[in-house]
Amino acid sequence: MTEPRYDVIAIGNAIVDVMAPCEESLIEELQLAKGGMSLLDADGARDLYKAMGPAKEISGGSAANTLAGLANLGAQCAFIGQVAKDQLGDVFTHDIRAAGIDFDTPARGGEPSTARCLIFVTPDGERTMNTFLGASQFLPPAALSEDAIRDAAVLYLEGYLWDPEEPRSAMRRAIEVARSAGRKVAFTASESFVIDRHGDDFRAMIDEGLIDILFVNHLELATLTGEDDFEAGVDALKDKVPTLVVTRSSDGAIAVSGAERVEVPAEPVDAVVDTTGAGDLFAAGFLSGHVKGESLQNCLTRGAVCAAEIISHYGARPEADLQALVAKRLG
User: Does residue 47 sit within a domain?
Assistant: First the structure.
């Protein structure tokens, strides 16, 4: 097998995050699901945007956030995702390339517009996300760069993008390409509501041995396995994937790989400002260690350090030098 050009190539939603602080009362007034993620149509996105206070636009998307963290950590990365030929599409394209990530998916003409996620951040740092998927849900298999997928050590897939038919077909094809090239496939379940809709697909992929690294949080673990007890959920999956990574918010995270199980606490932070992207950056830290062949302990610690950095400020893209933070933590 040839040495890969990329450490990680990811397929995910190409989204621009529109973030604004708000009071708890606005969440209640708008009848939003605090701390969750809801999907919007074009009219809903337009109406909700009008209700937001002063906001800032930051390129986002779960898998793209993970790549931004990986690039900050020195990894070579590429992204596959669909934007439209519009202003937000230009913003996304500029931002991801400026982060040092290869992005060559052609922009799509016509409607719908580039995806956006309207994020309301309450004083406790909790984020409530409302997403208009727009052009991102029209990523066809033909848009894949199969040579780039073959040339990446890890293919990383975002569960959020499993919902629309075209990108779901694209990701299935990408898995075939990666596995035929002897590469690893990492998958993040993204959110419990995604599992509610597509859990049978996810469980089938796990049972068929198509997933090498599975990222879930404790809530997604329960939804995926049907086990309310955390340890029962871990037991239900740990022998079905080579590496299982489960985050537990302020209770840290665990990873199980074969007979080895490792746990780490959450890294301390002065204040939780915004939890947007915590899981995305945890995955970045973990994968940055994994592609270097580091221990499971170090991979988890890297993830915890990156998650702590991201929740200390607004936005899901790192603002500090993650390599320096990791080096200081690991000595």
Answer: no
For residue 323, give the H/E element and its range.
helix 322-330
CA angle (277 as vertex; 87, 247 as ends), nearest 5? 155
Which two structure tokens, joined as six digits, stand for 88?
């937000």
The whole-angstrom separation of Cα 41 and Cα 130 is: 10
Name the one residue in this structure whose structure tokens are 């959450």.
266
Q: Flag whether 243 is in a domain.
A: yes
What is the domain range of residue 106? 6-13+61-112+134-330
Looking at the DSSP bridge assignments, the partners of residue 173 are none
Cβ–Cβ < 8 Å for 331, 73: no
The model's pTM: 0.91
Whole-number CA gyration radius for the chain? 18
pLDDT digits (tens, 9 = 90+) for 176-216: 999 999 999 999 999 898 999 999 999 999 999 999 999 99
Work out whether the CA dihedral 36, 44, 21, 98 comes out positive or negative. positive
For residue 251, give the CATH number of its domain: 3.40.1190.20
Cis peptide, bond prior to residue 112, ω within 30 of zero: yes
- Residue 227 buriedness (CB in 10 A; 0-12 / 13-18 / 19+): middle
Q: Is residue 32 part of a domain?
A: no
Place of tokens 């400002």: 273
The answer to whether 72 and 9 have CB atoms below 8 angstroms apart is no
* Alpha carbon of residue 259 to chain centroid: 27
Would residue 177 count as lying in a domain? yes
60-93 in b/e form (b: 16+ CB < 10 A) is bbbbbbbbbbbbbbebbbbbbbbbbebebbebbb
What is the distance in angstroms between the CA of the first residue and the CA of the last residue of the chain?
33
User: Residue written as tokens 């956006």?
Assistant: 116
Residue with tokens 């993040």: 188
- One-letter amino acid for residue 75 of the chain: A
Span 85-100, pLDDT tens digits: 998 999 999 999 999 9
The domain total for the chain is 1
DSSP 294: -
CB 72 within 8 A of CB 28: no
